[in-house]
């Protein structure tokens, strides 16, 4: 038969590995598409999604150096451009890349060790549930792992064939990997050293490898220098990540720091705001990174014993069977798909074999120089920061190679009847399995409360508050002390004006999680809306104590001060909010209101104008601006901003009134009349409307209707001089 031919087998095995990998990923896709995260990315995935859509929309640069490595987001933008923004196409391509990674793992293992090891390694990589899961996420893992394994395959091909072209190609793949995720950086010098060791034309091979690496990196570095004037080879986030993994509060697996908020954007803003507050001048991007790396090194220098203990803990976490979450929790996703649930191949079964393989294959270490170098470098790079399932994932295919080698070695020992050595290996394997699965750190996986809350927040953004409340309830069942779920439920009650229930829930959030700044901020908003500025002030003060750079907190404080009549304090608070977030249009509108109340109309107009620029479709602030222009006698400007707004009408009665006043002054009587009548339908005793609508009718010759309206105005306010004078004029003979 044709299939028995060795040449046919050369293709049959990798095709089978690819088919298994893709079939499992398609099965997972059928489950993934039913989850809200499929078309509503969160955290890092959301960052990539937003950035990619900006690029697809034509914004190729944000005008600042890259905070995150750019390649994945640019490729994602390409997929969006091809598919019209579909969330399906990127997943399909990533599933194909996951299948190719399994094939690369098979091919590399067959060349380095043999067919039996390759079959085991390839199928492990194809069926590994963590890899399947990440292939379905809009994260860098799939692309990074593929490029890294492809690069290792190419430079190993250069080693075996002594081909200079493959050194260049391998460097190019590794350079692309570097601009996908810079944690491969520690492997690159080892790869160059390895090329010098194994290439017959040592210097040429090493130079070609370096050249290949530089080709994709140089444009990134040039972009960063062009927009910032700083030398930033790829990204400027290294310092903050180093600190998050090395500080007094670090637990070894999460991005934890007492000063920095745990949510994605909050943490990002804090890491910039904190060094900015401590430096005399505006810090550069490198200075921000250096500030945090210096903080990490200070901790290491001052607490060497604690840091060494932490590093040992990270090492144990790296080799432990538990999958600690970073973004969405893999352990939560297991509940939704059988492809991830209770797998035969997992870290607890594969890692002991891999450790045994690392030892057994030392005899051919020169042949395995690049897998050994990568495993060593990537292990060191991971524990330098923090260890979680996502950051350990790129090591999995290489671990599969060593695991496959271990199985092949055990089979060979059995076949050759070397029972004593086989027994020793099996005892060692049992010991490794005990170590990997024993959870020697005692660190426990987080419960699923955060995942349920994340689902609930997605449903809130979709407008399905009923489903959101159900998931927040599930979060509290998983963890009755999960403050964020109480806060989110409180916000839902605020939306339906159930202020008593909202206050109870928000207060409960602060009780179970006293350091939850956002709950205090929400409580302050609630207290302000109920007319208790003193309670609101206490709540917002606590929020700012816990998180000095918490978004909208200074805006809320300014609103409290505005309500209390402290206009100078309100202006200062709104200004502070705008220093932290210059695009907060609500803070600009509030600042304009404070200036208006203090009589500074020019400053009020400036603030409202900026607010309208940021949010041109909001009718309320637009009509306030029109009213201010009218008060300054700038009727043409008032008319122009109203005309620019189009058919939108403000929701606030007073703002509608301001709109009608502007229209009336400019002679648009019919438009003004319609608005005045609409206001009276809602507020029959609106004094100013009664007077002005009477004027409109009088000018239209409808004296009877005008008289009726002015008499109604006098019933509302008997001392209204305008209504009295108009009636007197109406009664005078012609």
Q: Briefly, what is this?
A:
With 734 residues, this protein is mainly α.
Helical proportion, percent range:
over 70%
Give the low-confidence spans: none
Averaging pLDDT over every residue, what do you get?
A: 89
- Largest sheet: number of strands, sense, barrel closure: none
**If you compute it from the alpha carbons, what radius of gyration comes out, rounded to the nearest whole angstrom?**
33 Å
> If helices are DSSP runs of H or I spanning 4 or more residues, what is the number of helices?
37
Number of strands: 0
| Helix and strand composition category | mainly alpha
Which strand-content bin applies to the residues?
under 5%
Shape: elongated
* Separation of the first and last Cα atoms: 117 Å
Detailed description of the structure:
With 734 residues, the chain is mainly alpha-helical. It has helices at residues 6-32, 43-56, 71-83, 88-112, 115-127, 129-135, 141-161, 164-178, 187-198, 202-228, 238-245, 264-278, 285-302, 304-318, 330-333, 347-360, 369-384, 389-392, 396-415, 419-437, 449-462, 465-478, 483-495, 499-512, 517-529, 533-546, 553-564, 567-580, 585-597, 601-614, 619-631, 635-645, 653-665, 669-682, 687-699, 703-716, 721-731.
List the helices and strands and how they pair.
Elements: H1 6-32, H2 43-56, H3 71-83, H4 88-112, H5 115-127, H6 129-135, H7 141-161, H8 164-178, H9 187-198, H10 202-228, H11 238-245, H12 264-278, H13 285-302, H14 304-318, H15 330-333, H16 347-360, H17 369-384, H18 389-392, H19 396-415, H20 419-437, H21 449-462, H22 465-478, H23 483-495, H24 499-512, H25 517-529, H26 533-546, H27 553-564, H28 567-580, H29 585-597, H30 601-614, H31 619-631, H32 635-645, H33 653-665, H34 669-682, H35 687-699, H36 703-716, H37 721-731
Helix pairs in contact: 1-4, 1-5, 2-3, 4-5, 4-7, 4-19, 5-19, 7-8, 8-10, 9-10, 9-17, 11-13, 12-13, 14-17, 16-19, 16-20, 21-22, 22-23, 23-24, 23-25, 24-25, 25-26, 25-27, 26-27, 27-28, 27-29, 28-29, 29-30, 30-31, 31-32, 31-33, 32-33, 33-34, 34-35, 35-36, 36-37
């Amino acid at each position: 038969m044709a299939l028995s031919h060795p040449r046919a087998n050369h293709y049959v095995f990798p095709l089978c590995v690819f088919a298994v990998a893709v079939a499992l990923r398609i099965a997972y896709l059928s489950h993934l598409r039913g989850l809200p995260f499929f078309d509503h990315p969160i955290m890092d995935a959301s960052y990539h999604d937003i950035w990619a859509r900006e690029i697809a929309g034509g914004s190729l640069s944000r005008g600042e150096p890259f905070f995150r490595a750019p390649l994945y987001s640019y490729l994602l933008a390409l997929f969006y451009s091809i598919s019209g923004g579909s969330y399906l196409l990127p997943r399909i391509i990533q599933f194909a890349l996951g299948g190719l990674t399994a094939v690369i793992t098979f091919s590399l293992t067959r060349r380095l060790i043999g067919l039996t090891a390759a079959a085991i390694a390839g199928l492990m990589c194809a069926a590994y549930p963590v890899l399947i899961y990440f292939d379905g996420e809009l994260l860098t893992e799939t692309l990074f792992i593929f490029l890294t394994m492809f690069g290792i395959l190419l430079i190993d091909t250069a080693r075996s064939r002594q081909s200079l072209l493959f050194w260049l190609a391998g460097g190019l793949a590794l350079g692309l990997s570097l601009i996908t995720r810079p944690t491969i950086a520690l492997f690159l010098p080892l790869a160059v050293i390895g090329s010098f060791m194994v290439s017959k034309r040592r210097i040429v091979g090493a130079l070609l490898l370096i050249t290949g690496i530089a080709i994709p990196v140089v444009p990134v570095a040039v972009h960063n220098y062009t927009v910032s004037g700083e030398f930033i080879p790829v990204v400027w986030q290294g310092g903050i990540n180093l600190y998050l993994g090395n500080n007094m509060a670090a637990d070894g697996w999460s991005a934890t720091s007492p000063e920095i908020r745990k949510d994605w954007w909050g943490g990002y803003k804090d890491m910039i705001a904190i060094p900015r507050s401590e430096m005399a001048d505006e810090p550069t991007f490198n200075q921000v990174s250096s500030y945090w790396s210096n903080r990490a090194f200070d901790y290491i220098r001052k607490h060497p014993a604690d840091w060494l203990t932490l590093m040992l803990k990270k090492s144990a976490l790296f080799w432990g069977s538990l999958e600690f979450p970073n973004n969405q929790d893999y352990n939560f996703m297991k509940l939704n798909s059988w492809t991830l649930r209770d797998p035969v191949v997992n870290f607890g079964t594969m890692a002991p074999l891999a450790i045994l393989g690392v030892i057994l294959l030392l005899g051919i270490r020169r042949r395995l120089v690049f897998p050994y170098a990568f495993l060593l470098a990537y292990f060191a790079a991971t524990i330098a920061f923090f260890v979680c399932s996502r950051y350990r994932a790129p090591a999995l295919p290489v671990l599969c190679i060593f695991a496959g080698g271990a199985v092949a070695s055990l089979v060979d020992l059995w076949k050759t009847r070397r029972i004593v050595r086989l027994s020793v290996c099996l005892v060692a394997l049992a010991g490794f399995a005990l170590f990997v699965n024993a959870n020697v750190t005692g660190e426990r996986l987080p419960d699923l409360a955060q995942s349920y809350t994340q689902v609930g927040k997605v449903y809130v953004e979709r407008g399905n508050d009923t489903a959101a409340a159900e998931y927040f309830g599930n979060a509290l069942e998983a963890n009755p002390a999960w403050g964020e779920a109480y806060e989110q439920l409180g916000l839902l009650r605020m939306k339906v004006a159930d202020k008593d229930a909202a206050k109870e829930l928000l207060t409960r959030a602060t009780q179970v999680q006293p350091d939850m700044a956002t709950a205090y901020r929400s409580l302050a908003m609630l207290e302000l809306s109920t007319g208790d500025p003193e309670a609101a002030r206490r709540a917002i003060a606590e929020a700012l104590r816990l998180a000095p750079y918490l978004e909208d907190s200074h805006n809320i404080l300014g609103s409290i001060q505005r309500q209390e009549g402290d206009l100078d304090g309100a202006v200062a608070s709104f200004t502070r909010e705008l220093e932290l977030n210059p695009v907060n249009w609500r803070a600009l509108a509030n600042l304009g209101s404070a200036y208006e109340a203090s009589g500074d109309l020019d400053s009020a107009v400036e603030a409202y104008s900026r607010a309208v620029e940021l949010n041109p479709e909001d009718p309320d602030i637009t009509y306030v601006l029109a009213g201010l222009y009218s008060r300054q006698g700038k009727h043409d400007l008032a008319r122009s901003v109203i005309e620019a707004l189009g058919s939108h009408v403000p929701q606030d009665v007073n703002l509608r009134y301001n709109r009608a006043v502007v229209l009336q002054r400019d002679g648009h009587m019919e438009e003004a009349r319609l608005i005045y009548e609409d206001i009276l339908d809602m507020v029959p005793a609106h004094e100013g409307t009664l007077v002005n609508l009477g004027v409109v009718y009088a000018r239209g010759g409808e004296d009877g209707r005008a008289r009726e309206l002015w008499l109604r105005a006098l019933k509302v306010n008997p001392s209204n001089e305008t209504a009295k004078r108009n009636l007197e004029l109406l009664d005078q003979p012609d």
